[in-house]
Input
Amino acid sequence: MNYISTRGHVGQSQKAGVHNFEDVLLAGLANDGGLFVPETWPTFAPGFLEGLAGKSYEDAAIEIMLPFLGDAIGRDEFTVLVHQAHARFAHKAVTPLIQIDQQTWLMELFHGPTLAFKDVALQLLGQLFDHILAKRGARITVVGATSGDTGSAAIEACRDRDAVDIFILYPAGRTSDVQRKQMTTVPSANVHAIAIEGNFDDCQALVKAMFGDADFRDSHSLAAVNSINWARIMAQIVYYVVAAVALGAPGRKIAFAVPTGNFGNVYAAYAAKRMGLPIERLIIGTNSNDILARFFATSEMRKEAVVPTYSPSMDIQVSSNFERLLFELLGRDGAAVEAKLAEFQATGAFSVSPEIFAEVSALFSGIAVDDATTKATIAGIHADTGYVLDPHSAVGVAAAARVAGGVPAPIVALACAHPAKFPEVVTDATGIHPALPPHMADLFERPERIVILPNDLAAVQSFIRSHARIAVSPRQHRHR
Output
């Protein structure tokens, strides 16, 4: 299995831009600024999905992910890593399904250590980093941007690792108190949470700029934990496959409703479909930052100002992972992708042809859900079933309800975070204050380390230079 950049060209030699899994894991972002995707999509062999029925989540995950590794990690080694990655999940099923009405199911993705879906992939990413860095005798500097949940999950996955320093940028004042404290109360010396005076898109732009600075990237051995890192997408493919098989795939099609900001989670569902999972429809739920919903309604991607909402992890107007889908829609033409993104950078907008829009509309629906509807959904589901949704999960459930009548398949809505991460809106909607689980019960008593920096690349790079333990770049430790 080799990987190419969304801004490169298919079929070139390794020297010209084809990479193996180890390189992609450690690099995160391609040298040309693009995102890594498989050179060719692996597909499920006949009988493969049927053979997953009854397997544990971990055993299914190993079989689903192995094709993406090539010869980078052997089956036995990978089996150990996968089981270690899921050892801290509070539910034996890892991502259990809960039925909430005749057609709709919730897939709970918040049973990991930081109570958000990001744990599913990032706990594995931490294990993979340790394994590859130990083999290479190298170290990395992880740099990431978060709108709330990625940061704490990445920090939890990377804390206290000898070969990793981690710097997470988050928008000052635009996360929930629980999300912030999960990042700023970790005492580990290799962890640095940085509040940026700006919004998530500013944080994401700073991270991309650091990866685009070749000298800085190479001298600090930068690595990514955002969903720009292919390994994140790979690990998220698993729970779509596991859920679909549990509900009857491949014998029947399944639809998924995904609350979406940066497009990484729903892109993993698209990847599962490319591998052969029978997906009827992918329903994208956005909050009032509705750039994706507008694209799937109009064929135009147009950036607007970011506004704060009840679902802060989705307060995004530049969805980085959409580039991966665009690459497929444009016939894997890296130059065409680059042209579209240059147009977006220059004008704040781009559109696709009617033919491409018809293709994408056959699979995706985009639904915008405002704060009033989010709160009403939390209240309504609680009144009807006793179940307590967090606001992000409520966006997915509301989007599913909006299109359910036109979808001839069970719909799995993704419950992406524990309600205790967003207690104010949940309490307001239900009258119930959701409690943090025991391992986090003292979160608000833990001392914080607060670092606030301006939305300025030089200032952020200066902070990283002064706090990172720089060593030889892993890019100098290729397989011989």
Observations:
- Residues 10-15, 471-480 have pLDDT under 50 and may be disordered.
- The longest helix spans residues 118-136.
